[in-house]
Specification:
This protein has 349 residues and is α/β, with parallel strands linked by helices. The protein has helices at residues 39-46, 94-97, 140-143, 146-158, 175-186, 198-204, 218-224, 244-247, 271-276, 291-300, 319-325; strands at 2-8, 11-16, 27-36, 61-69, 81-84, 123-127, 131-133, 168-171, 192-194, 214-215, 233-238, 251-259, 280-283, 310-315, 328-329, 334-335, 344-348. It folds into two domains: 2-134 and 315-348, Quinone Oxidoreductase, Chain A, domain 1, CATH 3.90.180.10; 153-283, Rossmann fold (3-Layer(aba) Sandwich). InterPro entries: ADH-like_N, ADH_Zn_CS, GroES-like_sf, NAD(P)-bd_dom_sf, Zn_alcohol_dh.
């Protein structure tokens, strides 16, 4: 079978590896159909998120078809279409028992595709606890977005608005920015989206909820939407991970700033203002208790039209092209401006 291996910064290769089969009674083997490219994958390859284990198979946002099941598996059978939860948790440690499964003390590292073999591959082995049968008639491409939406729901749960009339901003109109816009919209808020890339802005405009506006700059959003060049920042979701130091002084009293990007960057802030202005600075990652099933529900019931976000489907053997669409140029070992409209790029195995 084929697997896309991470060997170091800018060093990835499609390799032939041993086929996967059942080992334990609760195991399932999934023939991978689709695997979405995550910003985490781009960061691992480019070296801005240097946490992956060398030699690991990348990829974690995936759907597929059950190929083999262990003797104790009851919830799925061979031939079932499934979505995979890539974030292992034991259910028994202190973090799991207090419903913080994304920080399980017994998992190795973070998740599949980072700390252990993932799903840019023809096959994947997991247990029946981490696969969910996709209802008939529901698109496997749409359901591939369950894991990123699950991470978004984890973050959105932490945002507790005091009013539905708060000035709400999402910075970045990639997949995570669009999904956060939907999650905040479902909470009753009306976010505006800021995106500097014209290609992403144009694609996202057809994917966000009705009534949500996208602008190329904060200044444009303030002037054209809020009719106030100094409109306060009540809620900010920063998917770029780079704006805290710049935006912190402009946060309104009792404001909330959420950072969900995974790039190393240090910021200087005035901690007196943190208390004096009753500010909240929040980080969020991975799936929290119940968020994966919440995301699965929102997609399979078409409450969030996830398939609209899929801009490209590229075969596994053309993985370099798939990453280049997102500006990750593996051959030149550089990040470049994307040349095409894009949101979620999916690799087809």
């Amino acid at each position: 079978m084929r697997a896309l291996k991470y060997n170091g910064t800018w060093d990835v290769s499609l390799e032939e590896v041993d086929d996967l089969h059942i080992i334990n009674p609760n195991d399932v083997i999934v023939d991978i159909k689709y695997c979405g490219i995550c910003g985490t994958d781009v960061g691992i390859i480019a070296g801005t998120y240097p946490v992956a284990v060398k030699g690991v198979t990348l990829g974690h946002e995936s759907t597929g078809i059950i190929a083999e099941v262990g003797s104790e598996v009851k919830n799925v059978k061979v031939g079932d279409r499934v979505v995979i939860n890539p974030t292992y948790y034991c259910g028994k440690c202190r973090m799991c028992q207090t419903l913080r499964i994304n920080h399980c003390e017994n998992k190795f590292g973070t998740e599949s595709g980072v700390s252990y073999d993932g799903t840019y591959a023809d096959r994947y082995r997991t247990t029946s606890d981490f696969v969910y049968k996709i209802p008939d008639g529901v698109s496997m491409k749409a359901v591939t977005l369950t894991e990123p939406l699950s991470c978004v729901i984890t973050g959105a749960r932490k945002i507790q608005p005091s009013s539905m009339n708060l000035n709400t901003y999402v910075f970045g109109a990639g997949t995570m920015g669009i999904l956060y816009t939907w999650a905040l919209h479902l909470k009753g808020l009306t976010p505006v989206v800021i995106e500097t890339s014209l290609n992403r802005l144009n694609y996202a405009s057809d994917c966000v909820p009705q009534g949500v506006n996208i602008y190329s700059s904060l200044e444009e959003a303030r002037t054209n939407y809020f009719n106030d060049p100094k409109a306060p920042l009540d809620i900010v979701v920063d998917t770029t991970s780079g704006l805290l130091e710049k935006l912190y002084p402009e946060m309104s009293c009792d404001g909330t700033y959420m950072s969900i990007g995974l790039k190393d960057k240090y910021a200087n802030i005035n901690v007196r203002e943190l208390a004096d202005k009753s500010l909240s600075i929040i980080g969020s990652i991975d799936s929290l208790h119940g968020s994966f099933l919440d995301a699965f529900h929102l997609i399979t019931k078409n409450i969030i039209p996830a398939e609209k976000l899929v801009s490209h489907v590229i075969p596994l053997e053309n993985y370099k092209k798939a990453f280049s669409i997102l500006g990750c140029d593996i051959d030149s070992k550089s990040m470049v401006q994307p040349k095409e409209k894009n949101a979620k790029v999916i690799i087809e195995c």
